[in-house]
Amino acid sequence: MPEEPAHSAPPPESVAAPAPRTRRRVRVSRVLLLLLAVVAWGVVEGGVCRVRRHELAFPDYPAGAAPLRAAFLTDFHLDRLASARRLGRIVDRVNAEAPDIIFLGGDYADAKLERLDDCLSELARLKAPLGVWAVLGNHDHVHAPARVLSALREAGITPLENEGFWLDLGGGRIRIGGVADFWHGRPDWEAAAGTAGPGDFFLLLAHNPDYTETLPPGAVDLVLAGHTHDGQATVFGLWSPFIGIPSRHGQKYRAGLVDNGRTTVLVSGGAGGLIAPMRYFAPPSVEVVTLRADGQSGRP
Ligand SMILES: [Fe+2]
Q1: Distance (Å) from CA 15 to ligand 1 centroid
Q2: How far is the CA of 102 from the centre of ligand 1 (A)?
Q3: Which of 72, 95, 182, 271 has its CA 20 to 30 A from that of 254?
Q4: pTM of the model
Q5: Would 13 be classed as within a structural domain?
Q6: Is residue 17 situated within a structural domain?
Q7: Distances in Å between the alpha carbon of 43 and those of 113, 144, 238?
């Protein structure tokens, strides 16, 4: 009898390699997830707004005057993507700080001013016993600066376009002024200084910190500026690849306190964002600044 053929053992189970189309889908899904995570990070960080506190003493601040607590908000950039409710929450937080005076640094809406009224209806709620004072930014100057100026006034905010005033603090007075935008206006610090001399404390609002490089040394004690948004996107807060777009001085005026040998500049990180309200390791901020004379101590 012919031998029955031996049954051969079944081949070991093997894992089939995914088809090229499946591998492509997996790769595309991973890239989409990564993009989604990047966008989500930017939106979440862009939605937060820090209150940064600064205690600054100056030899020209009148020794007999009480310290002055000022809030400084700038670069709202309220456009179609930004939230007026978020701005409303920022206004509530600033009011809760109970500042003596409030300064605004410009760039209220996008350049077309589509949401200027939304922005100013929130900013109109800012409250301080010594008033709310403002300058314009480059975006406010592009199409209709006169419209922004009148909208500010209607909101109870006083614009300072190359203007200034004396603020009597009881034991002394200080000069406060504001200049037109450096890119699109004609800033004039001398017009803002008025009769202030070298011994007077002079605080200047200037949207663009690059303007401070044109000031004579010692003419202005403190400049409050914005415009650079802390770079808006940085490498772990250390370096911003985009800062060269708004500033000719590299990382110098990204955010924070800068002594440039001419004056002291406090650059706010700004409350909003350009193009989209997104930030990366450069969180939005408003500043609360306590000014006092050299040698004065303690909180007001
Ligand atoms: Fe700006």
Answers
A1: 59
A2: 19
A3: 95
A4: 0.90
A5: no
A6: no
A7: 22, 30, 20
In a domain, 14, yes or no: no
Q: For residue 66, what is the domain's CATH number?
A: 3.60.21.10
- The number of domains in the chain is 1
**3-state SS of 95-111?**
HHCCCCEEEECCCCECC
105 phi, psi to nearest 5 deg: -105, 5
Q: How far is the CA of 188 from the centre of ligand 1 (A)?
A: 18
C-alpha closest to that of 162 among 176, 150, 177, 149: 177
Residue 216: give the domain boundaries: 28-293
Per-residue pLDDT of the chain (300 residues; tens, 9 = 90+): 445 555 555 555 566 777 878 888 888 889 999 999 888 888 888 888 899 999 999 999 999 999 999 999 999 999 988 899 999 999 999 999 999 999 999 999 987 899 999 999 999 999 999 999 999 999 998 878 999 999 999 999 999 999 999 999 999 999 999 999 999 999 999 999 999 999 999 999 999 999 999 999 999 999 999 999 999 989 998 999 888 889 999 999 999 999 999 999 999 999 998 888 889 999 999 999 999 999 876 544
